[in-house]
Amino acid sequence: MSLTPVPALRARGLTKTFGEGALAVTAVHQVDLEVARGEVALLMGPSGSGKTTLLSMLGGMLRPTNGTVEVDGIDLTRARERDLPRLRARQFGFVFQDFNLLGALSAQENVELACNLAGVTGARAHARARELLDRFGLGERLRFLPAQMSGGEQQRVAIARALANNPPVLLADEPTANLDSKIGHEVARLLRALAHDEGRSVLMVSHDTRLEEVADRVLWLEDGALKDLERMATDPVCGMAVARDAGPHFQHAGTTWRFCSPACRDDFAADPTRFARRAAPTA
Amino acid sequence: MRAVPLARHNLFQDRRRAALSVSGLAVALLLVLVLNGIFAGAIRQVTAYLRNAPADVVISQRGVRTMHMSASALPGDALRAARRVRGVAGADAIRYTSATLHGREGSQLAYVIGYDVRTDRGGPWNLVSGHTPRTGEIVVDEVAADNLGVRIGGPVEVLGRQFTVAGISRGGTSITNTTAFLPTADFAAIRGPALSYVLVRAERGTSPRVLAARLERQIPGVTVQTKEEFVHEEGSIVRDMSADLMQIMSFIAFLIALAVIALTLFTATLAKLREYAVVKALGASAWRLGRTVVAQAVWSVGLALVLAVVLAFLVGAALAAFTPNVRVAIEPSSVTRTALAAVAAGAVGALVPLRRVIRLDPATAFKR
User: Fold this and answer.
1) What is the pTM of this model?
2) Cβ separation B3–A121 shorter than 8 A
3) Which residues of chain A register pLDDT less than 50?
């Protein structure tokens, strides 16, 4: 499916400041972001960069200090507090890092519950849950509790749950973090298919660089602000994206290498050829 | 339309914990039910003679409204005067006092009733063995007979004179005393000729209340009550004597129930707080999550109440088997009061968990 220029998810000048006065901390600063229908966007960044705060605001769970979030043309920031749960239940599908399935409910009930929250109950919810779980190869696991399923199965149930309300936007927080590489790759391909084949907008937040393979676009969040990846380099030691023109650096064989931290720089300096062999110079 | 029963699944996911919680709550409610049951049983037992007496109306000395902790001496012509009043089908006098029965193996406080053995009215209402007493004979209750160590033909001393047990009756022993029946002539020979109470039967179609008022107008120096009024007054004495104790015990049991339900709901909610955040993130309103906590309270209280009622009947049966003078009467009004108290405990116990889930930040679903 080809991308369309109409964004399903759009943020403008999104800012979140916690605390006031001298104690104020700005976790997200002036973020502009669009995710088109059928697009997979990957949001990366170091720990503490504001990814979770940004995701919470985009998902209508946290009020921004400034800026707007629109989903399918609805401005979440102007919605009344009491309307937000209904908007979340109808506009978003959420996939969490730890799967976050409800332990007392079977696979089918986990999906049915999301249907219930979207206003679908009884036999229709039952059928919808079965259909989604069948689709993800879990037709034999309908009555299994989360504790009785593997990590990959649980994440597929979580994705089925995220689709229960047929949402235009999927927000996935570290969707492959607790999965081995094979299962993680399957989940990543599944999320891409949901975007490309069904026209949903998928925004993934992750540290997992393998997800870059399935992403149409990679966004880098650092210190609460989106950075232009074109102007980023890769730390040859840890693989993180780092600024091309700032931070710790090291000259080796006539090339300038950039690092996320002095520790990575020191590791590199101890044996430059070991790291330089497998990475391109940054400047 | 049916929705996924999250409250029930969450509450019973850990069945052992749920069973312990429900059992703890049930025991607290059981305490209230059994205390009330013993209390109600005692009132039934204390009023058993009157409830079974052949009377619609009871005449006593003016100002005397009970048998328990009372003495009544009627004017000499009260019985004949009563029989002459319009609407009276019949009247029988009894003599009454409280005294101690002495047997071979023990003593027991008793209502001693002298009645007319020729008419057999006002005597034992459930004679299970033996016969109506003749001169020098007595009928004692089966529980008292066991306690005193006597059988039919055995000796019992009362009011300073020895009697021979002629019969054994049933249903006349309470937690505090028993009932013994003598020929009225024997009673009079010991305590004098005064009559204590007159048991009046109303003619068909005559209202006991109207008849009581008529009797009181026409016979000087007496108080007249319907049987129901007399029974109520008799019960009130037991109630008044035990009310403070009952209230204290019931309040303590209520506090225990409150603590158990509050702890149950709090731990059940706390253990699932992250999951509730997920449900909230998925689109559940605070109201919906609140309903989940309330549903858990309803389940806990409902199951505990059912269990407590069943256990109360079992405890009642066990007590009846091992201590026959203690009767546990589980009355619908007692179950209703206990249920209301349990609901109140559930409502109060749910407040803190409700506050937690209502204020829960859905964004915590993203927290590691």
Assistant:
1) 0.75
2) yes
3) 1-4, 283
